[in-house]
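Budget justification aside, the reviewers requested a transparent look at the raw inputs and outputs of the sequence design task funded under Objective 1. We therefore reproduce one unedited record. The lines immediately below are the structure tokens for a 176-residue chain.
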């Protein structure tokens, strides 16, 4: 696994890098070609807590987990355990769902017509949108641990937004 680790307000030492590499090696057994997988790790500080955010994008899905602890090494252990649980819990569902799915490229951009001096766009993302049904979108949203997920809905033949409601359930917005 190729690991990119960076710190926000934290200097990453060689010992920290080695510990993360050793722990992430546990996940190699779950991937067909682990040497092709790129893993992005962000280490942040909030007061005395160390926050570890790990994102593992693959061709079929993206794994994401975040944990915080006062001790860096404990936070790494927690986040790796969380990722491993996600993989084991969803391995059969992922294998069944993501066979022979071709991605669709989409570029989400805001109109330049609406300008406001106070509000600024600070980040822009391009993403590959894969056709999937609502169950797959729900699974992907849970894997990413996001409150919303944009996907090409094969059942409705449109772009849909799956979002988590305040009551804990999910809603869908279809864009036709």
């Amino acid at each position: 696994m190729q690991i990119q680790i960076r710190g926000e307000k934290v200097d990453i030492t060689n010992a920290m890098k080695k510990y993360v590499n050793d722990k992430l090696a546990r996940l190699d057994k779950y991937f067909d070609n682990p040497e092709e997988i790129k893993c992005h790790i962000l280490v942040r500080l909030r007061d005395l807590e160390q926050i570890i955010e790990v994102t593992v994008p693959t061709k079929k899905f993206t794994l994401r987990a975040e944990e915080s602890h006062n001790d860096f090494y404990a936070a790494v252990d927690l986040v790796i355990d969380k990722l491993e649980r996600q993989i084991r819990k969803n391995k059969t569902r992922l294998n069944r769902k993501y066979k022979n799915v071709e991605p669709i490229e989409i570029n989400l951009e805001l109109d330049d017509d609406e300008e406001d001096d106070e509000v600024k766009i600070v980040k822009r993302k391009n993403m590959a949108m894969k056709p999937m049904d609502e169950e797959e979108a729900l699974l992907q949203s849970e894997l990413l641990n996001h409150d919303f997920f944009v996907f090409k809905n094969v059942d409705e033949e449109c772009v849909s937004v799956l979002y988590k409601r305040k009551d804990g359930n999910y809603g869908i917005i279809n864009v036709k």
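The helical segments are 14-24, 72-97, 134-144. The two ends are 40 Å apart (CA to CA). Computational costs for records of this kind are itemized in the attached budget.
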